[in-house]
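ok new one. same drill as before - structure tokens go in, u give me an amino acid for every spot. 306 of them this time. try not to just spam alanines like last time pls lmao
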């Protein structure tokens, strides 16, 4: 039997960010939602006074590579430890930690499930993985529940991530030169993310643990370009430049610091498929409310409407 408990008090760290602001808007019609401003201090202890603590705050992956390793470990590991200790010593019942699939793997063969052995390669992923391990190392007092959520790439209206960069290419009428690469990867609509979190907060029978978060369908980068072109009413220009030529250009790009380099090619053409079957089973649904394509279309429309 599923029991819903209204009028919970929900506290969110990182509420001014993209995910936090969307989650606030999604939850505030049902719950009392408040923000908790946090940053790491070595001698800090938190007194948690809420029913549900959703920890979103942290340092995101730095694409410009100007952050020091200590920035990641303080923001994503040490701060999480302090908050979780505060949760354990409080009357709060639910702790939700926003981790990442990058805490498990930077590259995926097959489909990423929660059973994969973690082997993160970046300071961002390692710090998140350390936070996960700390949370899992603690015995939960009776009545408390803990959820470690591992989303893949999140998108939605207002998001300024990689989809926006791809949109600019299509919007300028530039051809997509990597059509020869046929990849499959997972995305996560902010609407689906908010839906899942609300389901966890409402239902009393969701088992504590680690859950991957992703949309139901996989999309290739070529399919993304198709969707971008269709929604923005631009001609779909795709060129299948031979892979050997692209890879050689990428090697040159590494040497002369050109935007087309091996790291860029990997991000645009890699396979990164994520299973969401465990979380759907846990919250008792067969499919998420928003399809991958409709979520992408909504995100792209927000770029056009600006």
């Amino acid at each position: 039997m599923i029991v819903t408990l209204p009028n919970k008090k929900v506290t969110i760290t990182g509420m001014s960010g993209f995910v936090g602001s969307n989650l606030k808007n999604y939850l505030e019609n049902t719950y009392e939602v408040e923000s908790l401003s946090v940053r790491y201090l070595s001698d800090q202890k938190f007194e948690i006074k809420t029913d549900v603590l959703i920890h979103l705050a942290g340092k995101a992956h730095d694409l410009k590579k100007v952050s020091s390793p200590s920035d990641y470990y303080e923001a994503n590991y040490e701060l999480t430890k302090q908050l979780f200790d505060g949760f354990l010593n409080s009357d709060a019942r639910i702790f939700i930690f926003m981790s990442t699939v990058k805490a498990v793997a930077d590259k995926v063969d097959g489909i990423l499930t929660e059973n994969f052995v973690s082997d993160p390669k970046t300071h961002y992923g390692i710090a998140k993985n350390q936070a996960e391990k700390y949370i899992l190392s603690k015995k939960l007092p009776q009545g408390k529940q803990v959820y470690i959520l591992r989303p893949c790439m999140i998108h939605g209206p207002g998001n300024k991530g990689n989809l926006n960069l791809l949109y600019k290419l299509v919007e300028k009428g530039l051809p997509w030169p990597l059509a020869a690469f046929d990849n499959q990867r997972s995305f996560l609509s902010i609407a689906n993310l908010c839906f899942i979190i609300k389901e966890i907060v409402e239902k009393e029978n969701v088992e504590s643990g680690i859950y991957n978060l992703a949309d139901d369908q996989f999309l290739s980068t070529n399919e993304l370009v198709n969707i971008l072109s269709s929604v923005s009413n631009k001609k779909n220009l795709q060129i299948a430049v031979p892979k050997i030529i692209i890879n050689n250009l990428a090697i040159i790009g590494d040497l002369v610091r050109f935007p087309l380099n091996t790291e860029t090619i990997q991000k645009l053409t890699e396979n990164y498929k994520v299973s969401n079957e465990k979380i759907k089973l846990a919250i008792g649904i067969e499919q998420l409310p928003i399809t991958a394509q409709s979520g992408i279309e909504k995100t792209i429309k927000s770029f056009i409407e600006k």
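The CA atoms of residues 77 and 246 lie 38 Å apart. and btw The chain is about 40% helix and 15% strand.
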